[in-house]
Write a structure and sequence with these properties.
With about 180 residues, the chain is mainly β. The protein contains no helices and 16 strands.
Amino acid sequence: GAGAFTLNAGATLGIASTAGITSSGASGNIQTTTRTFTSGANYIYNGSSSQDTGSGLPTGAGAIASLTINNGSGVTLTGDASLSGNLTLTSGKLTTGANTLSLASASTISGASSSYYVVGNLLKAFGTGAGQSFTYPIGSSTVYAPVALASMTVSVAGSLKVSTTSSDHPNIGTAG
């Protein structure tokens, strides 16, 4: 209806709509005339049917403070997303498609398992320093195939993106 909705930094929004949160129109969890989803807020996708994150999810470096997936039917990322904080996988898979979920160097992931992981592109930033470790909880739609990095010494800050191919690699025929 008429009116305005603003989700401020530090606030938390639970989202049950299959359309997630949208920037306009008559769909999504919030359907006011003006919708503002501020960077630095926390988002919990906790529907009971498959959900899309929606066009209202903030974009830009570190725009999302934390993201929780608590939907056994799964959640699909509808655009690139960037977390400054934590990703919590309570129930279900997060599918990125061609999009990328980016994590800041201080970000962590909790709850990942052979049932709850990221299907698609997961990027993690790394600061400089020795002894760094991180496990990318990724896989295909049917197979959990995490990638673990341990005891890394990073001399130049940067990021690393991983994903899983659900079939044989396209160049398997020419592999040594």
